[in-house]
Backbone:
C-alpha cells in the first residue's frame, strides 16, 4: 500500500474540454433502436461539429464497450470512421467490464500526459438490449455432428439425437452479469454487502427514490448540458433518459419482490441500476492543444486509480480505488466538493459509504490508520445516478466523469471524484480539478 500511496501521475497537464452523451434508453425486452456504433456516432457527431478543429486533427480515439456486436468488431474504429476522423486516426476498443468507459478516459489521460497525443476522443458505448442470445454448447456440438454427417442415414441418426432442451437459448447478458470465479451474479454480490453492513431494505428504497427525484429535478431545471438527442432511422427523436420513474414512491418500491435472492433478499429491480443502452464521450486535450485551438476546459484530470478485491464483494471497489488516490494526494473527504459513485445498486453505494467511515474496514482492508470522514449526502450524485438513469456498462464510467466536470463548473467548485465498481472485483476512480470561482 505504501508504494501505491506515493505513486503520483506525472507529465503534462490534461484537460477535459468538452463531452456529450446520448439519452440513456431503458431496455424493454427487445433489441433497441441503435447499435453500439450508432450510439457512439449519435453522441460524437454534435460534439465534433462544435469544435474549432476538424475531426482528422484528433490524434486517437479510444472507446469502452463490453459487448460489441459481431458486425462492429473494434467498435471504436467503426465509430471513428463514421464520425469523419479519417483513415489515419487510430482507434481502439477497451474492455474492463463496468469500468470500460472510465478505462478509455484513463488511457487518453495517460497518452496526453506522456506527450504521445494532444487531442484524444475517449468514451464508452453499450447496447445491452442487443446482448446476444447464445447457443447451448450441446447444440453447438450437435450442429458439428450434423455438418459432418454424410448421406441420409447419418443425417437421420444425428437428427434423432436432437432434443428440445438443445434449442433453449442462452441469454448472454445474464452470463455476463455473473462472475465465473465466485459464481455470483452482480445482484447477489450486492445482497452480500447489504448483509455485511446491515443495510435495510427501507434504506435501499429511499436511496433509489432520491435518485429518481434528483434526476427529475435535473431534467426540469436543465442541468444535463451534456445530453444530445439521438435520432432513429425511423425519424423518432430520443431526447431524454427514459428510465426515469417520476411516479415512484416508497410504497411502490416496497411492493417489488427480491430480484436475486428469493424469497428473502432485499435487492430489487427498483433499487438496482436499469439495463440500458447509451453512449458518452469526453474530449481530452493537452495545454498546447487548448492554446492552439482556443479551447475552454471544463476541468483538469489530476489523477486516476484502479484497485482490485474479492469478486464476491465487487461493489466495494470504489472504496479501494478512492482511498489510495486521496492518500497520495493528501486529501480528506472534506477536500472533495462533489462525488459521483455509480449506482450499480443502492445497497452497493450505501455499503461503500459505510466502509468509508468504518475504522476496522479501513484498517484491515485498506491498511489505513484511521477511516475517512463521511461523504455528504448532498454532495453525492446530485443529479441522480444509474438507478434512475440506467447503467449501459461500457458507457457509465465516461458519463460520470463528464457529468462531474459539468457539476464542478455549474457550482463553481474546485474538486470532484468520480468512481465506480467493476464486475470481477475491481474499482476505478478519476480525480478532477478546476479553478474555483467566486
Residues:
Amino acid at each position: 500500500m505504501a508504494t501505491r500511496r506515493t505513486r503520483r501521475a506525472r507529465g503534462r497537464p490534461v484537460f477535459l474540454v468538452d463531452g456529450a452523451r446520448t439519452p440513456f434508453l431503458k431496455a424493454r425486452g427487445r433489441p433497441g433502436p441503435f447499435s453500439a456504433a450508432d450510439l457512439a456516432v449519435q453522441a460524437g457527431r454534435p460534439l465534433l461539429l462544435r469544435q474549432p478543429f476538424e475531426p482528422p486533427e484528433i490524434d486517437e480515439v479510444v472507446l469502452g464497450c463490453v459487448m460489441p456486436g459481431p458486425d462492429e468488431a473494434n467498435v471504436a474504429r467503426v465509430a471513428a470512421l463514421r464520425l469523419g476522423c479519417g483513415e489515419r486516426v487510430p482507434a481502439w476498443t477497451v474492455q474492463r467490464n463496468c469500468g470500460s468507459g472510465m478505462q478509455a478516459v484513463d488511457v487518453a489521460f495517460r497518452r496526453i500526459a506522456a506527450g504521445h497525443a494532444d487531442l484524444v476522443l475517449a468514451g464508452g458505448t453499450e447496447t445491452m438490449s442487443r446482448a446476444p442470445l447464445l447457443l447451448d454448447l450441446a447444440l453447438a456440438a450437435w450442429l458439428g455432428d450434423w455438418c459432418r454427417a454424410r448421406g441420409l442415414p447419418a443425417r437421420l441418426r444425428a437428427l434423432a439425437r436432437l432434443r428440445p432442451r438443445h434449442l433453449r437459448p442462452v441469454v448472454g447478458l445474464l452470463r455476463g452479469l455473473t462472475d465465473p470465479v465466485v459464481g455470483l451474479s452482480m445482484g447477489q454480490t450486492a445482497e452480500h454487502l447489504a448483509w455485511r453492513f446491515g443495510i435495510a431494505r427501507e434504506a435501499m428504497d429511499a436511496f433509489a427514490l432520491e435518485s429518481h427525484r434528483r434526476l427529475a429535478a435535473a431534467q426540469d431545471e436543465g442541468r444535463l448540458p451534456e445530453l444530445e438527442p439521438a435520432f432513429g432511422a425511423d425519424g423518432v427523436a430520443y431526447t431524454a433518459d427514459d428510465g426515469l420513474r417520476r411516479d415512484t414512491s416508497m410504497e411502490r418500491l416496497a411492493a417489488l419482490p427480491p430480484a436475486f435472492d428469493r424469497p428473502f433478499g432485499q435487492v430489487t429491480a427498483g433499487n438496482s441500476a436499469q439495463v440500458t443502452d447509451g453512449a458518452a464521450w469526453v474530449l481530452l486535450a493537452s495545454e498546447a492543444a487548448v492554446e492552439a485551438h482556443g479551447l475552454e476546459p471544463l476541468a483538469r484530470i489530476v489523477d486516476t486509480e484502479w484497485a482490485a478485491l474479492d469478486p464476491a464483494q465487487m461493489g466495494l471497489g470504489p472504496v479501494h480505488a478512492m482511498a489510495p488516490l486521496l492518500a497520495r494526494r493528501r486529501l480528506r473527504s472534506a477536500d472533495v466538493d462533489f462525488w459521483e459513485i455509480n449506482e450499480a445498486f443502492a445497497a452497493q453505494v450505501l455499503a461503500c459509504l459505510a466502509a468509508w467511515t468504518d475504522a476496522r474496514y479501513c484498517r484491515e482492508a485498506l491498511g489505513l490508520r484511521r477511516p475517512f470522514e463521511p461523504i455528504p449526502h448532498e454532495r453525492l450524485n446530485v443529479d441522480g445516478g444509474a438507478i434512475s438513469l440506467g447503467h449501459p456498462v461500457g458507457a457509465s464510467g465516461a458519463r460520470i466523469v463528464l457529468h462531474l466536470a459539468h457539476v464542478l463548473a455549474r457550482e463553481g467548485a474546485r474538486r470532484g471524484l468520480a468512481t465506480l465498481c467493476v464486475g470481477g472485483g475491481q474499482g476505478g476512480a478519476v480525480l478532477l480539478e478546476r479553478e474555483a470561482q467566486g
User: Anything to note?
Assistant: The CA atoms of residues 258 and 268 lie 5 Å apart. Residues 186-222+302-433 form a domain with the Peroxisomal Thiolase; Chain A, domain 1 fold (CATH 3.40.47.10). The first strand starts at residue 14 and ends at 21. Confidence is low (pLDDT under 50) at residues 1-6.
